[in-house]
């Protein structure tokens, strides 16, 4: 039986950088989703329960720090890496 891949959410408004990250992480076997603004990222974090969020601090609609605080309350066990 195959293990369930870890889920990573990339919250990054730079589509080129986000795609590079996504491609590399998928090659390593992770399930990767992308959000290009803070509101979209918060919605995905609530719905999909990622294991790790790669978070750009300066993203449109909801800054990284404004995203991070409510997300911690919702997904306390999710890891974060700030970009």
Which key features would you list for this structure?
single chain; alpha/beta; 3 helices; 42% helix; 22% strand
Written overview of the protein:
This protein is α/β, with parallel strands linked by helices and 83 residues long. It is built from three helices and four strands; from the N terminus they run βαβαβαβ. It has helices spanning 15-27, 38-48, 64-74, and strands at 7-11, 31-35, 52-55, 79-82. The protein has a four-stranded parallel β-sheet with strand order 2-1-3-4, sandwiched between helices. The radius of gyration is 12 Å and the shape is globular. The model has no long low-confidence stretch (mean pLDDT 86).
Beta strands, count? 4
The N- to C-terminal Cα distance equals 34 Å
Number of helices: 3
Q: What is the 3D shape?
A: globular
């Amino acid at each position: 039986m195959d293990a369930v891949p870890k889920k990573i959410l990339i919250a990054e408004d730079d589509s080129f950088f986000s795609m590079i990250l996504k491609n590399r992480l998928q090659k390593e076997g992770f399930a990767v989703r992308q959000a290009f603004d803070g509101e979209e990222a918060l919605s995905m974090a609530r719905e999909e329960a990622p294991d790790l969020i790669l978070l750009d601090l300066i993203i449109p609609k909801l800054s990284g720090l404004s995203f991070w605080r409510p997300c911690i309350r919702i997904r306390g066990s999710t890891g974060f890496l700030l970009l």
